[in-house]
Amino acid sequence: MIKLLSRRELQELYADNDLYQYDEDSSYNMVGVLSVPLRDCLAIAYDAKVGALNDEPIQAHELVVDMLMHYYELDDIGTIPNQWLRMYDELDVDGDETVYYDSRGVVIPRQVYYPAKAITNNILRTVGRWHPYAYKMRTNLDDISMNQGYLITMKVYGDNQTLESVSGWRDTAQYISNNDGKITRVSGNNSWTIDSSTNRFASVGELQESRAYTECKVCQTFNKYRTNMIPIRSIKKDRGLRWRNRKNVCHTCVIAILNSKYRTDMGEYVDIRFKGTIAFDGVDTLLMAPLNTFSEQITYDNLLELRNEFGRFFRKFPNVFGVSTNVFYELRPIPEVDHDYRFETGLLNYSYTFPIFLTSVAQYGYESSSVGYDWQDPIWYRKNGPFYGVELECNVKQNRPDYRDIHVVREQAIKLFHPAMYPEGYTQDGSHQLIYAKRDGSLNGTYGVEFVSQPLSYNYWVNHVPEVFWQYFKDNFLARNLGECGIHVHIGWDSMTVPERYVFLTILEQMQEQNSELLEAIAGRSSNSYARWDSLVYRGAKDRAFQVALEKTQTGSNPKYNAINTQHEATIELRYFQGNTGRNSILSILQFIQTLYNFAGYITSNFTWDYGVDAPPESLQKWIDDIRDDVDNVILSYMFETDDMDFMYKRIGEQRLRSMINNTFEEGTMAMVRYHSMLDMRVLALTTNEER
C-alpha cells in the first residue's frame, strides 16, 4: 500500500545520501515522501491508459485516495498529508457544488480529490517508462513483490497552495525493502531496471554482467534470453519498433502481441508496443508487423516438434501452439535465384571504379566485351547497343516485404539482377557482375544505396533484366518523392559520331532552354540542385553544342551537378531524372534517351560532312533550326512516327500527352489530327494487351 515515510525513515535515507533533502530554508514547504509499491504504480499506469482510451481525464486513483482518506478521517493537523488536505480546504469554494469522484466512481471530499489527483499524476510521470510492462502484467500484478517501488517526494512551492510536480532525480528514487517494510536499498538515480523473470528491480550493471540476460525490445525489461526470450524482427513504424535486425523479445510479450488484434477488435486498450500482428515462416523467422499488414492467417502443424529455439518457445505454451494452430500469419516467400557466382555484394565506396564491360544480346546468349577495341566504332555501337550505364539512387524501405537485415536486402537485389546460373550463357572478356551497390554522400546513411550497372544494351534493359528483380526492387526499395534520390544514365561518347553527338546535345540543350514539357514529364522534375538545367559552356565557340560534341568536354567550371555532366572522359552523364523503383518508369527514361539517339542517327545518316572544314549541310542545319525553334514539336513528331514509345506513354499518361499535342501543334492542322488519332490507336492497343 502507499504510505508516507516517517521522520525516522527519512532521517536514515538522508543520512546515507540515498534521497535528496530539501533544505529547511528553501522555498519549498510541506515536504513529504511517499513510498509507492511497484505493483501499485503499474496498476495506476494501466488504469490511466484504459481511461485515456475512453477519452477520460486522469482521475484521482483509488489507491492514492485510500491513503489520503486515512489522514482525512484522522484529522491530525500535525501530519504532512493533513496539511495538504487543509491547503485545498482553504481555497475559495463559494458556490462550488461539484461532486468529486475517484477512479472507482466513489464520491470523495474535495480536499481529498485535488491532492489525490496531483499525486496520481506524479506517479504516472515517475513510471512512464514502465507503461508497456504495466500492460504486460495487467492480469498478473500479484506476481510482483510489494517489497519494492518508488519514493516520490511531494512538496509545495512558496504560497502556491498546490502540490508540485516531480522534478526528476530530486523527487524520485527506486527502493527495495525487507519483509518488515524497512527500506534496505535505494537507487537515487533510478538506474535499476526490472528483471521480468522474477519481476523485481535489479541493477542494470549486474544483469548485463550475466550474458544470459538481455533487454526485451517490447516491454523494455530484462530477461533470460535463452530461457524466456525469442529473437523476432519488426517492421512496425512506431518509434523504437522498426528494427534493422532481429531483437530479443520476452515469450509473454509475443503471446500478448498475438492476442492484440482480438483485444483491439473488441475495443479494449492495447499498449502501442504490443499492438500488431505476428507472421511466421514455419521454420525460424517471426516477424512483428502493424495490424492489418497481412490478410489471412495460416495453419501450421506440429510447431511443437521444431528442433530449435522456436520449438522450445512453442512447447512452453502448448495451449497456444498445439498440434495444429492458426495464430500466425504467413510470411511470403522471398524470391531466390540459383547462383554459383561469388558476387561482390558489399556497399562499395562512391569513388570505387569497377572494370567496365559492354553487355549486349547475341544470337545465342549474351556477349560482354571490355572497352577500347578498334572495332568498337559508332557503326558497331548502333548495331549492338547503345549501352546504358545506369545509377539508381534509392532507400531500402522500412516497411518492406523482405523483412531481413538491410545489407541482406541490398545483396538480394544484386543477385536477382542476374539470371539464374549467371554467368552461364555469357561470352565474356573477363569475370564481372552486371550491377554493384555503392555509398553516396547525398543519401540516407542507414537506408540509402546507389546501384550502379555495367553498360547494358537497350535491348538488354528492356527485354532481359529478370522480371523477379523488377518486382523485388519495387517492393523493397523507395526513391520516388525522395528529393535526394535520382536516376543518372551514362551513354558513351564513342557510341555516336560527332554529327550525332551534335544533334543529341542540341536537343537536350534546347529542351532545357525552352523548358520542355516533354523533358519534364519524363524526368519527373525540373531543374534542381542535383541536376541543373544549365546551358553547355565552351568559351569562344560559335556553336557550343557542336564544340562540346567535338571535344567531348566543356570549358569553365563544368560542374558535376549539371543535368548534362561532361566531367567523365568516356561518357555523357544525364542527371535529369527523379528517382524511381518502378520498371516502367526506369525503362521510359531509357526509351526517351534511345529516341533521341535514334533521331540523331536518323537525320545524320544521308550525308557526308567534313565538319573540320565545312559548315553543316543544309539538311542538317534545317533540322537544327527546327529544334531551336520548337524542340518538343520535332521530338514528339518523331516519337509518334515510331513504334517504340509504350514506356514513355505509360510514364507521361494519356491526358498529359493529349495536352502536349494541343500545346505543341496548331489547332486543326493535319499534325494535330494525326497524332491524336495515333494516340487513340495506341491506347486501344495497350488496353487490349492488358485485358489479355
Written account of the structure:
The chain has 692 residues and is α+β, with helices and mostly antiparallel strands. The protein contains 23 helices and 29 strands. It folds into three domains: 3-190, no CATH class; 200-330, no CATH class; 347-604, no CATH class. Strands 18, 21, 23, 24, 25, 26, 27, 28 and 29 form a nine-stranded mixed β-sheet that branches. Strands 13-12-15-14-17-16 form a six-stranded mixed β-sheet. Helix 4 (80-89) crosses helix 5. The longest helix has 22 residues, at 670-691.
Draw up the topology in text.
Elements: E1 3-4, H1 7-15, E2 28-37, H2 38-53, H3 62-74, H4 80-89, E3 100-101, E4 107-108, H5 110-126, H6 131-136, E5 148-157, E6 172-177, E7 183-187, E8 192-195, E9 200-203, H7 204-209, E10 213-215, E11 222-224, H8 225-228, E12 229-234, E13 247-250, H9 251-265, E14 277-280, E15 286-289, E16 297-301, H10 309-316, E17 324-330, E18 347-348, E19 357-361, E20 366-370, H11 378-384, E21 387-396, H12 406-416, E22 426-428, E23 435-438, E24 448-453, E25 456-457, H13 458-463, H14 467-476, E26 477-478, E27 486-492, H15 498-513, H16 517-523, H17 544-551, E28 564-565, E29 571-578, H18 583-603, H19 618-629, H20 631-640, H21 646-652, H22 654-664, H23 670-691
Parallel strand pairs: 12-15, 14-17, 18-23, 20-22
Antiparallel strand pairs: 1-2, 2-5, 3-4, 5-6, 6-7, 8-9, 10-11, 12-13, 14-15, 16-17, 19-20, 21-24, 21-25, 21-26, 21-27, 23-24, 27-29, 28-29
Helix pairs in contact: 3-5, 4-5, 15-17, 15-18, 18-21, 19-20, 22-23
